[in-house]
Amino acid sequence: MEGKRMKLESQKAENAIHLLDKIKEFTRSLLINLTNGNSSIILINRFRNHCTLSDSNCFCGSDLPVGNEVLTLCKETRVHRLGHSLYLLLSSMCACSLIILLLFKLGFENKHSSKRDIYYMHPSVFLDQSVVDHAINDICVRMQCSRHNLNVVSAGNGLVMGWIRFVEGKKIFDCINSPNTAHPTPVYVEEIKDIVSMAHYILVVEKESVFRILANDHFCNANHCIVISGRGYPDIPTRRFLRLLVDNLYIPAYCLVDCDPYGFDILTTYRFGSMQMAYDTKHLRVPEIHWLGAFPSDSDRYFVPKQCLLPLTVEDKRKIKAMLLRCYLQREVPEWRLELRMMLQKGVKFEIEALSVHTLSFLTESYIPSKIHGKVKI
């Protein structure tokens, strides 16, 4: 085991050095062209999470780009954007790149930085956080790497509990000792090792309120599972952590979201990834995840009272119609598309908690177990 770990650490170090070499060569080429009075043309591959092609002959959600974007100093609009990317790459010290300096400092000192930290290095230059976000995405695509390869991490927002124990760096997460106690999802997912689990499945819930209901009802004790919540739209660490668990534990994963267009969008983010991070889909999506509920048809099946059913707003309907056009719904999960159409036809939405209107423990004692054991999922 120790030999395998040392091999992985060695491979990680080699990959970091290779990435540094790529960044150095990139900046060197740019500087040579600028010194010689030439305008560099930089091709940035573009990826997408979905399209609206009905024939499904697309490369959405794959490792293949769907086209290129050209960045050049010849166009004023591109100069501004390229300048911010270069500012991340170039510092004033002998044409060294700021990212190179960060990588050397962060990588060799075993430290990490957030996008927010980078923004506050020079807020007067970047003007807005979105400028840094866009520039980092461009750099990741150009260098064919993920943010964590650059030691750029996001603050974790997710929660986990249940039958699992693992080590993240030097920190031990022992959820097994107290399966119904919430722990923050790990941020440095690449440092996770020694995963031990006796769970039968993973349950992903959309929001913290439902997570707390399961914790209070000791759901993990009774069902020997792992429960994760991204507390709304999941952040990158939560999605990477879920991906890691599915890859290593070989157990089913289910997702429970509100029966509304935003809950459905969160479900698709877990399974298919997001448009913003489409270039890194392979590390972030979980195609194995099943939709456990809440389905539009559940309102009739479980006798949800009319006062718990809210009418869809104009914005809800617009969002549903747009989602119905996504290619992956037609190509991979047409049954999800049917449920989404039913939501639009019924014209109502409801929250997960509405299922507990008859008894407080309905979710934990009846709804979720019956869905999983009765295989009422899609």
Automatic annotation (TrEMBL):
Keywords: DNA-binding, Isomerase, Magnesium, Membrane, Metal-binding, Nucleus, Topoisomerase, Transmembrane, Transmembrane helix
Keyword DNA-binding: yes
GO molecular function: ATP binding; DNA binding; DNA topoisomerase type II (double strand cut, ATP-hydrolyzing) activity; metal ion binding
One GO CC term, this protein: nuclear chromosome
Residues annotated as domain Spo11/DNA topoisomerase VI subunit A N-terminal: 102-152
InterPro entries assigned to the protein according to its UniProt record, in alphabetical order: Meiotic_Spo11 (IPR013048), Spo11/TopoVI_A (IPR002815), Spo11/TopoVI_A_N (IPR013049), Spo11/TopoVI_A_sf (IPR036078), TOPRIM_Topo6A/Spo11 (IPR034136), WH-like_DNA-bd_sf (IPR036388)
Catalytic activity of the protein: ATP-dependent breakage, passage and rejoining of double-stranded DNA
Active site: residue positions: 120
CDD domains per UniProt: TOPRIM_TopoIIB_SPO (cd00223)
UniProt keyword annotation of Transmembrane present: yes
Enzyme class (EC, first level): isomerase
Compartmental location: Nucleus
Residue ranges of the TM segments: 86-108
Gene3D superfamilies per the UniProt record, alphabetical: 3.40.1360.10, Winged helix-like DNA-binding domain superfamily/Winged helix DNA-binding domain
Annotated ranges, domain Topoisomerase 6 subunit A/Spo11 TOPRIM: 201-372
Gene Ontology terms describing biological process: meiotic DNA double-strand break formation; meiotic DNA double-strand break processing; reciprocal meiotic recombination
Cofactors that this protein relies on: Mg(2+)
Enzyme Commission numbers on file: 5.6.2.2
Family, per entry: Belongs to the TOP6A family.
Protein name: DNA topoisomerase (ATP-hydrolyzing)
Gene source species: Medicago truncatula
Name of the gene this protein is made from: 11442500
